Amino acid sequence: xxxxxxxxxxxxxxxxxxxxxxxxxxxxxxxxxxxxxxxxxxxxxxxxxxxxxxxxxxxxxxxxxxxxxxxxxxxxxxxxxxxxxxxxxxxxxxxxxxxxxxxxxxxxxxxxxxxxxxxxxxxxxxxxxxxxxxxxxxxxxxxxxxxxxxxxxxxxxxxxxxxxxxxxx
Length: 169
Description:
Layout: E1 2-5, H1 11-28, H2 39-47, E2 51-56, E3 59-67, H3 71-74, E4 82-90, H4 99-113, E5 118-124, H5 128-136, E6 140-145, E7 162-168
Parallel strand pairs: 4-5
Antiparallel strand pairs: 1-2, 2-3, 3-4, 5-7, 6-7
């Protein structure tokens, strides 16, 4: 298992995994579905070393993005020194491997190395199974919140509550 930054050659695979995740969300019918993300967003994350992949035997098993600021979602808590994780998507060939736990382990180390005090993530809507999954991975569930300003956020952030999670380091 290897965790490293994604690169420009990974863009097609990133979008393939996002499409698979979105199709899976649609099949669940009661969860918020990811929109089709803009290529420019992913390319920017890659160029800023904020798009990550977990590889096993040279195959991309899981992807996610990070940032050190997330003001629209975390509002006043954005002032804390935190690493924010977004858009975890797993290759279906590797489902059931509990990559969230591995990402959490990596994120704690990475956040400490960057001088951060928290690892945070969010999800949307009342996806109770996903809430439990993140809690089981070590996150504290802070609750569901209506975002004050969703201007400029991807479409799936509009009109649904945000579920906020954090790990204090």
